[in-house]
Amino acid sequence: MFAPQMPVQEVAATARPLGFPVELWEEMSDQHRAACINAQALLGAFGSDRTRPLRSMSKRAGLGMQEALDGLRVLDGMDLVQVQPGDNGPLITLLAVPEDHVRIIGPDGAVRWVFIARPLDAPEFDPHELN
Hints:
With 131 residues, the protein is of the alpha+beta class. The chain has 5 helices and 5 strands; from the N terminus they run αααβααββββ.
């Protein structure tokens, strides 16, 4: 996992969090990169648990509460987690893990990125909806 105090430039030179490709990573602001590094640290804080309190996760990841909230915004924005109220603060449930970002070129010639995440629970389909 990524140490929260690791400078953004060092992360860009080695591995990037959440499977971001170099092209996308280099376009991000330093603030968004830091939030992504925090998000990756939060993913590591789940350990073998699927649901954990945010306070516990922030401590386990070595993040301050504001850093944890910044990382949580990234995870929630990528639909990787579900946030629910708990007795002692928010409970975070891991829904999926990031795998890749696939570069595609649309019919208009514009580059777009498709984010791929592996859900932890297989989706259920009605057999009549399948071809």
